[in-house]
Amino acid sequence: MNIQVESSDSTSIKSILAALAKRVPKARLAEAQAFAGAFYQRMSSDEFAQHGVDSWAELAADMLEFARARKRGKANVRLFNPTMKTHGWESPHTVVQVINDDMPFLVDSVTMALAEQGIGVHVLGHPVMPVARDKAGKLSRVGEGASESFIHLEIDRQPQAAMASIKASIERVLDDVRAIVADWNPMQAKMLAVADDLGERRMPVSEEGRREAQEFLRWAADNHFTFLGYREYKVAKQGKDELLVADEDSSLGLLRGKDAGKPRSLKSLAAHYMPQSGSVDALILTKTNARATVHRPGYMDYIGVLGFDKHGKPVAEQRFLGLYTSSAYRRRPWDIPLVRERHEYVLRQSGLNPTSHSGKALRHILETLPRDELFQASEDELFRTGMGILGLQERVRSKLFLRRDRYGRYFSALVYVPRERMNTQLRKRIEDMLKGALNGERIDTNVQVGESPLAQMHMIVRPKAGDAIEVDQAALDRQLAEIVRDWRDELREQLVARHGEEAGLRLANRFGRALPAGYIEEVSPEIAADDVDHLAALAGPEDLRLSLYRSRRHGGGIRFKFYRQLDDIPLSDALPMMENMGLR
User: Fold this and answer.
1) pLDDT tens, 322-331?
2) Which end of the chain is more exposed for a tag (fewer CB within 10 A), N or C?
3) How far apart are CA 419 and CA 62, in angstroms?
4) CA nearest 217: which of 202, 230, 236, 233?
5) What is the DSSP letter of 160?
6) Is there a contact between 315 and 244 (Cβ–Cβ < 8 Å)?
7) By mean pLDDT, which of 254-258, 367-371, 443-447 is the weakest?
């Protein structure tokens, strides 16, 4: 068997292969070396430094034995704390090893499951190699056969008592991955079939709206949506009440085999008042209340396709759960069905010439909005937000744009603050403000800082279930202004009050931005304004100004300051002069 090693660390791999020759029977040496060569092929020099050559050799031999038996369609998972006595190698970390049929999302999903429990990863190896097995699942050859995924993780050290629950969480995630991969094609085919069916379906929307809804579904199915689950629902009468009842036989992906729960009254659903207007109302575009367990963290995207009776009343729903792909988030608004309608509506309602400076600025604003806003906000909501952000371009200041999800699941907040004010402390204070005002149970924040003078924070606030929330937008705007307001704002107001707006702003721009952090922490804005006045009054390098005052911040002590341009005043020069004036 030929072993090809293509790695910058080939010397280390050759040493591992040589070490294997000392501990593996000759009959299995070629197989073990082929396995180790593939296993360590992409390992970096930093990772090689984690263990010695003998330990890496023992690790590979041990994992090969772990892989000896595995049934197709079932993952091998184990957690252990390696010791020299038991395993022939040791680590300060706990080891997680997973052997599975090769499929997408495995590593992402396993590391997500660990991160959800606050467990850090120190070493990660993930080779994929072909292996052959007999009908019973016993390993027969390495280097031939179906591709299998081998994951080796070294994580934060865990007590033995915690390992069973960690292993169970990893196995649940692997089951989820297997379910969505197995049902991927059926879910994609279902979405395309629904798109075709919309052409003949009774719908209370315009023909243009019908076409846009069809095109959106086809666009999503064309590698712009990662399918995680599917289920169908119908409206059924129970006495005077109407219930939304799940068809469990229709379930695919994550929803396959999962209990749909009791039928829910339409009156209890935030979307029961559907439809409203436009093609978007044939589709429900929102986020679920559940986080994805597969691929990447975050709440799952929800695409619901409604069916209507002859009176235009919704009587059925086909629900797709998943995540928009990275390519979907990179697409320009005018290239996405449904979204392009809203994009054109905002530009048309603005009355701006598309080739003018303001028209181009508005188009750029829409292009840089979070894609979730473009998918989920209505035309009027996007218009108000876009024009509001355009107004911020003329004057850099903080502003909050708040949108309640039309299905009552969450609040979406777009917060803009001056870029130089953006820091972690400010973000946390704004999060606390929104959680308090909106009875938020959870909040997720995404920060974007680019070339614009304004930093953007997109915050999703999920209120506690059942809470009735009255939003006072004006009060939130005032609170935001107070949070963002800083010491330099107060200095600027002091200088404007003393010298008028023109001169005051000139002094604030000249001196305010130059004052160091240590000075700001010690001195009040009033005293700083006095200092700026003295500095501005200096006539030249030879001029000297003095200030004597009592500081209320420092227990009423006397402060004496010297002001001079371009050079320091050595204490050895100043103290004798002050002593001559009676200073002690």
Assistant:
1) 999 999 988 8
2) C
3) 53
4) 230
5) H
6) no
7) 254-258
